[in-house]
Amino acid sequence: MISFDVDNQYTNVPVYEAIEVTLDMLFKNSDSPPIPFHRSQLNKLLEYAVCNIPFRVLDKTFVQVDGEAMGSPLDPILADLFMANLEQKLIRFSTNKPLI
Prior knowledge:
Elements: H1 15-26, H2 39-50, E1 53-57, E2 60-64, H3 75-92
Antiparallel strand pairs: 1-2
C-alpha cells in the first residue's frame, strides 16, 4: 500500500518541481490568469518565498536548500498542488482507473 499523504512531509517535496507544477496550473489556459504577474515574475517570487530559507537553531544559522521549510504558509499549498499533479500522472498511466 502506498500513501500520498504529505501533511508532515513538506521537506520531501521537490521545491522547483512544485513551483513548475504551480505555474503550469495557473498558466495552462490561454486566457490571462487571475493574477497581475507574468509567469517569469511569479516564478521568481515563488523562488524567493520558498527556496534557500534561512533558519536558526541554538544560535547557529542554517539554510534549507532542499525541500520546503516547515512553517511556511506556502508549503501546504505547493505540496497539495504537487501531489495532485502526481496523482493525475499516475491515474493517466494506470490500467485500474477509479470509478467516480
